[in-house]
Design brief:
Radius of gyration: 19 Å
Order of helices and strands: EHHEEEEEHEHEHEHEEHEHHEHEH
CATH superfamily of the largest domain: NAD(P)-binding Rossmann-like Domain
Number of helices: 11
Structural class: alpha/beta
Strand content: 15-25%
CATH topology of the largest domain: Rossmann fold
CATH class of the largest domain: Alpha Beta
Number of strands: 14
Shape: globular
Number of domains: 2
Length: 325
């Protein structure tokens, strides 16, 4: 009889995912990705309609329905023994019903046999590894010392970014803005931040700006950024979506992965921005760091190798804890 594949709930993932260990693992994964050590195709994306849709919408240029009710992402990757695929659904309208707009499941596999070895709920892991990657980039690209942080977005990613950024820099102030005043108040209270009435109020004078929204049109203007600011541009995962305007994208742009940014990021595509380097190249020293005082946009698309490595970390920690009992 085949044994049941272990299933790790969000609670168990949260229990075994150590934030500091995750930051270190993401740093190495990004270096390995840029060095060509990971096997990672570009993600597949499928649009889907709500079940209540009576008649399927006609496809648009092979992309699915123009309604974009939801998106399904399929993201496989292998880095050494970490071999996984991730299924993600993004339904922006969930936020209005107090449900997560992003849901994910990760399947780990044995690279020797191809057999599934674990299934993990992926919302916590996604939020934490995304924030860990932003923290890795901020650690490499911002000077030491206390930082003022602006969060444009008030969901789970704002919360995970606040947690991770506090591990790499002293944070003197966190300002929170999103289009929902109620969500802003709740998020600010939870992360020890200040609720802001406008995106501009949050961004002016901030050292680190995190765009972690579901926006499809720009919510961050480059004119608001102080010289030398660092922007973790995390949202807008579609070629037609943007969080940043052209002025912001005229700064130095660093990507988690060049090909993904050039083909999947509306912020990059629609502004005709040039990718200066991948963060892994900077971390490895194969490309020189930007000049001190540069304003930097870090475009993070969320690479599949990050999920594979993070999931393997959780499973290994769970196995170790079980063997110690």
């Amino acid at each position: 009889m085949p044994t049941a594949v272990p299933y790790l709930s969000e609670a168990r993932v949260n229990e075994y995912l150590d934030p500091k260990t995750l930051i270190d693992a993401m740093r190495q994964a990004l270096i390995d990705l840029s060095a060509g050590k990971a096997n990672q195709p570009l993600r597949m994306v499928m649009l889907f309609d709500a079940a209540s849709t009576q008649t399927p919408s006609p496809p648009t240029k092979g992309q699915g329905s123009p309604s974009e009710h939801g998106l399904l992402f399929l993201k496989p990757a292998q880095l050494g023994s970490a071999f996984a695929t991730k299924l993600i659904t993004l339904v922006p309208s969930n936020a209005a019903n107090n449900q997560p707009s992003l849901l994910a499941t990760i399947v780990l596999m044995d690279p020797n046999t191809g057999a599934a070895t674990a299934i993990l709920e992926g919302a916590t892991l996604t939020a934490m590894r995304t924030a860990a990657v932003s923290a890795v980039a901020a650690d490499a690209l911002t000077p030491h010392g206390p930082k003022i942080v602006a969060m444009l977005g008030s969901g789970v990613l704002a919360r995970s970014h606040a947690q991770m950024l506090r591990l790499i820099r002293p944070i003197s102030e966190i300002r929170v803005w999103s289009r929902s005043a109620d969500n802003v108040e709740a998020c600010a209270k939870e992360i020890g931040g200040i609720a802001c009435a406008s995106a501009e109020d949050a961004v002016r004078g901030a050292d680190i700006v995190c765009t972690v929204s579901n926006a499809a049109i720009p919510i961050l203007k480059g004119a608001w950024l102080k010289r030398g600011a660092f922007v973790a541009a995390v949202g807008a995962p579609r070629p037609t979506w943007r969080e940043l305007d052209d002025d912001a994208m005229r700064n130095i742009v660093i990507a988690d992965q060049r090909q993904a940014a050039e083909q999947e990021s509306g912020d990059v595509i629609l502004s005709n921005a040039t990718i200066t380097a991948e963060i892994g190249e900077l971390l490895a020293g194969t490309v020189p760091m930007p000049a001190e005082g540069s304003t930097i946009i870090f475009k993070s698309l969320g690479q599949a190798v990050e999920d594979a490595v993070a999931a393997q970390l959780v499973v290994n920690a769970a196995a170790e804890a079980s063997s110690n009992h």
